[in-house]
């Protein structure tokens, strides 16, 4: 295997994702290794994929069910601003169809580890509770 590639064990130690989880992410298409040896089946990951794995690990720690959804939706007051932050954090771009009401980072079926993220504007909550009239 190429010296620049990390084995599944080395990648697992670097990302704190178990080899079992990495295999599952590979099978689901969420985090596909850069190289899979046809003869041995060994997986090889690049250092660039460490960032994607870090995002996946962080989302899993927040109990986001990555394998059960085709993407992640966020309710927020400013979709453009939040999408810009996550686009920079995941080294992706905000989709051109985004507007004031929603923003999309990534696309369904896009190659890469991080699932698409949809940011949708929601009204800000009331600052005070309703009082009953007397």
From TrEMBL:
Nucleus listed as a keyword: no
One function term, GO molecular function aspect: DNA binding
Gene3D superfamilies in the cross-refs: 1.10.1660.10, 2,3-Dihydroxybiphenyl 1,2-Dioxygenase, domain 1
Keywords (A to Z) from UniProt: DNA-binding
Regions annotated as coiled coil: none
InterPro entries the record matches: DNA-bd_dom_put_sf, Glyas_Bleomycin-R_OHBP_Dase, Glyoxalase_6, MerR-type_HTH_dom, MerR_fam
Domain HTH merR-type: 5-66
Keyword DNA-binding: yes
SMART domains assigned: HTH_MERR (SM00422)
Name of the protein: Regulatory protein MerR
Organism: Pseudonocardia dioxanivorans (strain ATCC 55486 / DSM 44775 / JCM 13855 / CB1190)
């Amino acid at each position: 295997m190429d010296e620049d590639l990390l084995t599944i064990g080395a990648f697992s130690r670097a990302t704190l994702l178990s080899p079992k989880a990495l295999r599952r992410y590979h099978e689901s298409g969420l985090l596909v290794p850069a190289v899979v040896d046809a003869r041995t089946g060994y997986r090889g990951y690049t250092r660039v994929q460490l960032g994607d794995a870090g995002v996946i690990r962080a989302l899993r720690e927040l109990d986001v069910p990555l394998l059960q959804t085709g993407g992640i939706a966020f309710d927020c007051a400013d979709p453009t601003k939040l999408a810009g932050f996550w686009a920079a954090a995941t080294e992706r771009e905000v989709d051109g169809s985004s507007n004031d009401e929603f923003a999309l980072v990534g696309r369904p079926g896009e190659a890469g580890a991080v699932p698409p993220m949809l940011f949708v504007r929601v009204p800000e909550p009331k600052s005070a509770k309703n009082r009953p009239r007397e």
